[in-house]
Description:
There is one protein chain. This protein is mainly alpha-helical. It has one domain (3-105). The chain contains six helices and no strands.
Amino acid sequence: MSETTQLRVQELAHFAQEQDFNQQYRQYFGDVWEEVGVRDISKMTIQDAEQTLKVLADSEASPQFIKSLLAQAAIDGATPQVLEYFLSSDIDSDGRTLAQELFQDGTNPLQPDTPQPPPKAQVLSLSQTEDLDWEI
């Protein structure tokens, strides 16, 4: 695990310790894990983590929810390898890792941060043969 990723895992663990997830949040987290098929967080695999990211993307989860879900996973015993996988992933393929987007940028890891090119503008021009009469 790289030093940067290790720091991100520690930051996630610190965030997790600060949280007081109520029963409703735990139910939302449980719904995600159930959809993925994870029964025991401590036994989660990289494939489970991949599927979790797909579920989060499909459900358009908020950055705060994603951060909280990963924090709860850390509390519940997710392995360092799985946490590293989550944090180093780039769900939206914008070149920024999930950790960078959540902890540095404060951006949504499900939406690319690079500006999308505007649609090609249509240029309207008047025909040179048109004769316009303006009346006042």
